[in-house]
Amino acid sequence: MITQADKGRTLVIIYREDYHNKVHTFLTNNNFQTIPKNPNNIYHKQITQTIKQCNLIFHKEQYKYQTVRNPNPPTLKAQIKLHKDGNPIRPVINNILAPSYKAAKKLNKILQQGLNLGNRYTVVNSVTLAQDLMKLNINKKHRLIKMDIKDLYVNIPITETIDITTTQLLQHNDPETTEQICTLLGVILQQTYFIFQEKIYQPDKGITMGSPIRGTIDELFLQHLEQIYIKPLIDTKHILFYTRYMYDILIIYDAEATDYDYLTQYTNTIHSNLQFNPTLESDGHINFLDLTTTRRNTHIETDIYRKPTTTDTNIHFTSTHPIEHKLVAYRYHITRMLSLPLKATQQQREWETILHIAQQNGFPHAMIHKLRHQIEHKTKHTSPQDRKNKKWATFTYISSQIRKITNLFRNTNIRITYKCRNTIANRIKPPRDHTPPHNE
Length: 440
Hints:
Layout: E1 2-4, E2 11-13, H1 16-29, E3 32-34, H2 40-53, E4 75-80, E5 89-94, H3 101-114, H4 126-134, E6 142-149, H5 158-170, H6 175-190, E7 194-196, E8 199-203, H7 214-235, E9 239-245, E10 248-254, H8 260-267, E11 276-280, E12 285-288, E13 291-295, E14 300-304, H9 323-339, H10 344-360, H11 365-376, H12 384-389, E15 391-396, H13 403-406, E16 414-419, H14 424-428
Parallel strand pairs: 15-16
Antiparallel strand pairs: 1-2, 3-8, 4-5, 6-10, 6-11, 7-8, 9-10, 12-13, 13-14
């Protein structure tokens, strides 16, 4: 069978039995249990009734728009982690037809507005991280370590997280509104079921995978723990630098004030549900996000890092795709190269890598040079207000002849984007069965 890899939009050919075994190993290791009866109708009724009781956060005329008509259980598929030993899976849950999907999507917006979730310890991207690292003054006693949180989404404690949410919301909301928000949140977080191989599974802990609200809840819980357990280490100079990107953490610590063993033990006692897997620097180097971070005597240096599973395969120049799609990877690589604080030798090496990738995919060097020139000398910037006022229209790209139509919108307020159907994944995908297994 064919499935997707966890990174890089790579397709993986795997024996169906091995795929199922990997999924069942994940389900067993994380204590997922089968339940004898499909709770779909019960959960749909719970959501509908709870929404009608939340008159302070929903208007009466909004009720019908917050429930899913004819809901189905969420479905699980697995993406293969090619960059991890043993190639475990990352579960991906399709929650769009779940009873709680629309309510969760609306509640997520309410929580983002009502919660004071800053980004004190989070990093947005590798460029921001590199700029932050360049500002640091370090010495020979500092060391690098990274940690990743294992399977956070199935280990978030629901009751504790709702209590944290309540405390945060009460700082800016009245008790009645807070109670309604947290009641609906509790109902949504309890609906953690999904279907795989015609069996209904449910974990004994953790929050709904695939729910629109999951990212906000994860961030709320982690920021609460960081404020309690990480901030004191920073204040006492045991840790010089701490940042987190989703579930991956980078730490620079003082080896005279603490050590690797203590930090590993300390982080793994922060919460009984969480397991932190540490990786110590090797010869002063550590890979984090798409950067190689190097510790020098007085400062930090960064360079671009590519995982061993990274391939040079992009959309080929001769493929029937719009040129905007073909160039997007090179636009990203060039922008990253120019934005990162790289040495001249590092930038030149990256530029040669970009040209090599382009050549492997049939692109003339002149086109990539022209793209770099456009990025370096781009003077016309679209203001946020201009982008906000733009409307978008999507066309299916079959050949360049479609531009005879899309060019008609060139001087209008409508911007054009394209989608393609002629991808390898679509070509080899088996026919879709529109009948859910549980309804057969």
